[in-house]
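Box 3.1 A note on notation
Throughout this textbook, protein chains are presented in two layers. The first layer is the amino acid sequence; the second is a token string describing backbone geometry. Keep the layers aligned when reading.
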Amino acid sequence: AVRATTLDPKDSTYWNNLGVYRYHAGDMTGAGDAFTRAAELAPRDPVPQNNLAELALAEGRREEAVRLWQEVVRSSPTSTSAQLGRIQLALLDKKPAEAEGHARAAVNQEPGSGWNRYLLGRALQDQGRDKEADAVYREALDLDGHMPDLLAEAAACARRLGDAARARGYLDRALKLNPRHARARQLADEKP
């Protein structure tokens, strides 16, 4: 991704992809720089804005994340990024059934997206539907098993279902990808 960015530093997609790579690797500063550059190059593109919101939430800046997602929903209401924003806003507002509806629509819109399935799993998990969430997390992992956020939540769900070995495996993978991942570290420090 770095070489691609150097080849065309005026293309926002390269910067956004670099940001995603850095985010999953735990380089939040680098991710923020890359997402910001992508947003500067394509101010009407909701994708970098959505990713900046995800980053803000991951760093504990909830109000900023909400503001960014609300802007994405307002400015690009039919985009996939707006759909993802609606899911996250519903989850933050403790409305998991509403989040589930938006997440199912996002999965139907982009069936090959592991991230969309991860968000559906979170909505199910927040409703106490761990068996369904577990199945969705497994599907998401089959699509993209390199997301520490997904691996950490899949681990939490597997642990609640009594599968400590699978939970440990997910946590090991999450921490290998990002040794500083807060949720994975929290779960690793807890006794099963």
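The mean pLDDT is 92. DSSP finds twelve helices and no strands in the chain.
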